[in-house]
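The protein record filed below.
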Amino acid sequence: MPNSAYWFLGLSVSSILLLTYTLFHAKSTVRAIFLFLIMTQIAYMIETIIYIFGSSYTYLPGLLKNNAYYDSNMGALTSNLLVIPTAAIIIAVFEWRWKAIAALIVFIGVIEWVFVLLEIYKLNWWRIEYTAGGLVFYFSVAKLLYSRLLRPVNGMFHSLLLFLCIAPIMGTLHILPIMLFMNRSYDPSWFNDPAHDTTACASLYYIVSSCMIVAIMKLQQGHVWLKYCGIAVFILVLTLELVQTEMLTIHKWWDPWFYCLFPATVYLLLRPISTRLARGA
């Protein structure tokens, strides 16, 4: 394992330990978990714009030797699935004031600067100052949402929060197998690198499928298992259509089974989130 991998693994382990500690000490673990999911998806959406489609920077963790872009994605997951959402949870749960938040933003900026010096993180057009400015907005949203989650939500805001809770799970389960097992590839012909193409297309795919699950959760009529089967069939038809148009190539026999069943299973297991949001987390 290259030395760069230890830096990213160290950040990941530290974030997991801090997240566990924070959830353990939160007054409402459920509310803290909801906020973690929401802030993860907000980070994912920002990263989709600036990193995937904007090519703002490149991570060099050295965790995946067979594909440079997927290796960069592993670094992106360290940041957007663990480090940044965990920082947001700590700020919200422990009610940090802005002096402490400013110190944390500076600390994150120093880490980013050190990673650049170590040549395990490459800035293209992005600047560390942009990260600092973005974190001010990001942490402000975390504090507001954590307070708002105490009260019941309904209407479009309920749908939005439900989407933000479900989408990071859908997105992570969608892209991780592709990066680790090369089980499928998308070919929208947007970028020169096939892995970049696949990542970009997958980022839109999981958003669409997450919206579909939210819409089905909001339906009052229909049996749960009928909806479960409906989601699986919809994904199967979509998969066949993408294969037919040569937008999707499947490389592993288990791929269609996994991608048809896991969205339906996410719907089945996460249905209580909708009820909990409606009555206040």
